[in-house]
Amino acid sequence: MAPRLIIAPSILAADFTRLGEEVRAVDAAGADWIHIDVMDGRFVPNLTYGAKVIETVRRLTTLPLDVHLMVLEPEQYFDSFAEAGADILTIHQETAPHLHRQLARIRELGCKAAVTINPSTPVSTLVDVATDVDMILIMSVNPGFGGQRFIPRTLEKVRQARQLLDAAGNRGAMIEVDGGISRATIASCWRAGADTFVAGNAIFAAADPRAEIGALRTLCQETV
Ligand code: DX5
Ligand code: ZN
User: Fold this and answer.
1) How do residues 59-72 score in pLDDT, each as one tens digit?
2) Residue 115 CB neighbours (<10 A)
3) Which of 4, 36, 107, 168 has the most CB atoms around it within 10 Å of its CB?
4) CA of 44, nearest ligand number
């Protein structure tokens, strides 16, 4: 069986005057998930969208919706985002003092529960929730904006996250990377142990999203 490899285009880089076409295009181009970046202008210095956009994208595609909550008090949004059609809810360790309870609540709502850490937050902060997560997202940029440069230190953190999950016996959990993923960076993340890749600009700014998704996938598969 081929190893799991998920490509999740982030609609942050989409043309919102044509959101419907953009989502349908990446779906048809072979995307596995759609990544939705929710920002509150408090945890991160930018504001984006919430339940209304999740619900809109839900009507455009049957692909899993991977919702990244860059917000303070993320638990305020769990119910409405699950109701709007989110499949995966990812919360920041930095915003979640009751991480164990918050992850359990996400699962109770029928969503996959994921936790993410900023570039300056150590992987070791996740050791006590290693069996409570369906996915760990290692941020490869400081969250808030698309189009930033990949931070190389991410690779070591991906390796550590994989070790942490293995040591906990959580072999089903995925490791995602988000920020600056492109043809230049994806294979090194894959080799380090990531299996799930968010890409905004790399896919939406490409002349041919299908070719781009195919190229990203091939770069990983070639290094198996
Ligand atoms: C950054 C967001 C990312 C962003 C990635 O805060 O979490 O998901 O959309 O964009 P690119 O792939 O353009 O770096
Ligand atoms: Zn994101």
Assistant:
1) 999 999 999 999 99
2) 24
3) 36
4) 1
pLDDT digits (tens, 9 = 90+) for 110-158: 999 999 999 999 999 999 999 999 999 999 999 999 999 999 999 999 9
Profile the chain (224 residues) by mean pLDDT over runs of 10 residues.
Answer: 90 98 98 98 98 98 98 98 98 97 98 98 98 98 98 98 98 98 98 98 97 98 80
Which residue owns the Cα nearest ligand 1 atom 7?
A: 143
**What was the pLDDT predicted at 1?**
63
Q: Tokens 């905004």 map to which residue?
A: 200
Closest CA to 79 of 71, 70, 89, 65: 89
Cα 144 to middle of ligand 1, angstroms: 8
What's the CA gap between 47 and 109, in Å, rounded? 25
**Which residue matches tokens 């991977």?**
66
Question: Is 110:89 a contact under the CB 8 Å cutoff?
Answer: no
Contacts of 22 (CB under 8 A, 6+ apart): 11, 14, 15, 204
pTM of the model: 0.98
**d(C-alpha 174, C-alpha 171), whole Å:** 8
134 touches 88 (CB < 8 A): yes
For the CA of 182, the closest atom of ligand 1 is 12
